[in-house]
Predict the structure.
Amino acid sequence: MGIETSIEIYCRNTGRYEKAEGGETLFSLAGRIPELKGLHAICALVNNKTEHLGYRIFGPKEVEFLDRHSAVGREVYIRSACMLLYCAVHAENPGLTLRIEHSISHGLFCRLTDRDDNELIPDTAMTERLLQKMRELSRADIPFVRHEKLTSDVIKIFKAQGLSEKVRLLESVSDIYTSYYEVDGVADSFYGPLAPSTGFISIFDLKTWHNGMLLLGPDLSNADMPQAPLTQDKMFAAFREHLKFNRIIRVSNVGRLNEAVANGETAELINVAEALHNKLIGRISDDIMERRHNGGASIVLIAGPSSSGKTTTSKRLAIQLMTNLIKPKLISLDDYFVNRDRTPLDENGDYDYESLYALDLERFNSDLKALLRGETINLPTYSFELGKRVERERPLTLASDEILIVEGIHGLNPELTSALPPESVFKMYVSALTTLSIDNHNWIPTSDNRLLRRLVRDYKYRGTSPADTIARWPSVRRGEEKWIFPFQENADATFNSSLLFEIGVMKAYAEPLLHLVPHNVPEYATAYRLLRFLHYFRCIPEAQVPSTSLLREFLGGSSFHY
């Protein structure tokens, strides 16, 4: 290709400048670079912003091409598979509404409803027809064509297709222009770019799942095969309970939440959401009391991933237990860390505090067995400043009317309490299982909810910069995948700590922090994506959030002492 207008693009894949023609697409540029022939790029980072490969180059840029095996590329792949599914539903069952609700069991849980919003439970035959249509679209290799038009025009397109919740969202955000994608005459919008064409999306599966379907992408360990479903019945039940609650109060997506904000209904919404938290924690307290009456549950282990709200949940559970005439005593697993020179190292050579073996398991089991025998122990104290245990006078005894609450990420791991009688332990899992969607086809990842919480908390209380928090997040997530998520189904109770209104409140805190992330660092890609995500939300006044709310653990202003 003759290049008439010389634009120099720095390609991070090759480590050199590449010449591009003014207006050339990233897809075209990637096709001319020999080193990228085997990459099969699905998207790119342009000045640390994720872009589709139809993006046109009009000036100097820094570009990194990504395939579907990268974290960002996998997100693009899954979004594109969602549009394939929507196109299949639109073709095979045009009167039905597709609702992609949340991630579960290695996939995305999807429901179908009719024009009157009645649930239609798909049978195996329907699911198989949709799967075959998706495969047909994939083989046809149809471009995902990106358009950007006046929002008023996009609203007309979406209204014609019956995408009422997308219309509601666009009307509540009030942007002048809106981008959307089109495949074979079917339009849709997504929170992020799609692949260049349907042919890029060839590895997927669709299965009947409970009252809906499970959309599965490529296996993380074998990218040539679709993921196999994982049994997560307890997690699914927690999601389903909150989704039912959302439907009853008629706030299931951001468009409807924004309407509630505009109509001055947020105070009531916050009160109802907080009441649900109280009810669920009270129910778990009742289950613990019943277990104690049957001779068990002397120890409650509370586990969950980072920023799930374990600490506040522990304190609120303690209050509920006192209403059941049980006196709680709270301790943290953090005090059982081994000295730093004995702490395991991760793959980067850093101290791996997420590892189970960063804990003194022998001391922990010995202490808890002594407590169960009615003996007095001296609780250890770990100094993070010194990186070692400091012995102080911290005597602890459990009376017959007392219960021990232990908070830490490993509470569901059977190896943690291997020396204790199983009936003596009640295991509780806490996580922010986000059930609010952006719209019917765009779910909110639970990890994004937790990352926003952590950004705000770590900046406010630990002096950690937003860029450092984002940089650390992949390592935190790897630790969760290894040490927490495999044991979720071991829980005796699952508590969903997400709050329907919380991202609207967090917006005012998180946006200024995300703007602090420099544009020239890799973490800017995540910061920019989260800023785009927060743009959909109208702000909710923090003053309406009660001092006992779990959200106060991250914002400040809590009546609990941390």
